Structure formats: C-alpha cells, structure tokens
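Aim 2 progress update. The chain analyzed this quarter is reproduced below.
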Amino acid sequence: MIFFSSCSSDDDIISVPSDGILRIPVVVHVVNYSPDPFEISDSKIKSQFLVLNEDFRKKNADTINIPSEFKHLAADIRIEFYLATIDPNGEPTSGIIRNSSDVTGWLGNEELTKEDAKLYFTSQGGQDAWPNDQYLNIWIADLSDRHGALGLAGFANLPEVDPWRDGVVIDPRVFGTMPPLEVPHTLGRTATHEIGHWLGLRHIFGQHDNCEIGDEVDDTPVAYSQHSGTPAHPMPSCGSNDMFMNFMDYVDDKVMCLFTNGQKERIYRLFEKNGARRELYLNSIGQ
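Predicted structure tokens:
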C-alpha cells in the first residue's frame, strides 16, 4: 500500500513535502520542423501545464461528468508539473529549449535504434534528454503523415527505458490549449494521457480485444476494446460498464476526466525503494 509521510528515515516509506504534493520539473524540447514550422509560443506551452496540474490534482471542472458509479474512485494524484528553472549545470533556464531542423517526431520512435533515433540527439538535429533522474523530458515535434495531416498525437517512452529517450513526444497540434490545435485534441489531454504512460499506467482496455488482460489496476473495469470519439455511458463489456472517460482510454479530449485511486497507487509504486522512478522522486521532494 502507498502512503505518505512528511518525514521518515525508512527507505521503504514514501515521504513527501508537508503539503503532500510531489512537484516534478519538466524540460520542453521544441524541435520544430524547419521546412514547415509551427507557431509554438511560450504561452501555448504554459497552457499545457495548467491542464496537467488540473487533471493530476482532480481540479478539472469536468469531473462533474464522471458517472455516479465511478465518482468514489476518482483520485487526486497529488503530482504537479512545472517548467524547470535550473538546468543540469545549475544555471537558470526557462525550461523551454528550441531548435529547428528536418527531424520529426517519427525519428524518436521506440522501434528505432539509437543511431537512427535522431530526435533525442542535439548532434543529429534533435535535442539531448536532460537527466531522467531529475526531469521529465517532453519533446514537441511534428508527427504528420505523408499528406501533412496529424498522423499520431503523441507517444510515451515507459519507465525503465534507456535514459537518453526517457520522456514523451507530442505533436504541437495537440499540445496545450492555444492554436495551432487539431480537433478533437483541443484540451491538452494528449499530454495527460502520455504522461500517465510515463508514470507507468497502461490503457484500461484489453490488450488484444479480449477481457483477459487489463491494466493491472483493480478499480478500472476491464473493457473489451478501446473507445474513441464521444461514447455515452453506460457502455458495457466484460461484465461491467466501461470507464471510457478515464484519461487512459482513447476518447476525445472533452470526454476524458479522471484517474482512479488504483491508478494512483500504481504510479506511486514507481517511487518506492527500487522503483523505476525512485531517484526522480527523491530529487523532486521539496521542489
């Protein structure tokens, strides 16, 4: 069981600041596609942090849309994110690093070898990751298909990947709440979803369109398959109503509205002794 303590010498106990909020510094690597760049303002980037800190703190106004059968499960994850103010060398930073090149988000795909994953290396036109035991790395990069349309909203590199690629990659058209934006990804929920993966959460639906394997969280009902668009509750499968409004399904931004207590516990296992994000957690205490 995960529990908080304001002070403890026991390595197995998760201690947090006195207000009980874990604050994680973030560096945003803007790798803008030089042949056809997007307008990615500082204001647009900052708007994403407002969304994240509402969603992960259960302060999002659309919690009123949670069906009554799930309301008691909705959790305040008690994690907040902020743009880093100090870089790895101890120097002041805005937390936003920019460059332009012909590197796209597709060149960060997890199936690529280190030699081909140019997004993560400054020397190849991308940007080097900052230490993953101190920061969450977010790369904003073009994920257009061959027709120039949004090919993929974003993807996450999960805990325990190589440090040089640890973080999330998000297309600028789904980042934040300011233009340019691509319908239906207009409320910044792609980042909420992908950071959920970065924190160890899985999709809440069955992995192979069946009811056998879910997300290993007890309070999220297993769904037979993913949901998209704007489904209406109740949507039954696998002997229960699907929690498609969970941030870890594929519905439109305006439908997503909750994490659960079980998901919160799964996240905090990463911060326990020997957890995959233990060092990040320890470095973030007191931020």
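Residues 1-9 have pLDDT under 50 and may be disordered. The radius of gyration is 19 Å. These observations will guide the mutagenesis experiments scheduled for the next reporting period.
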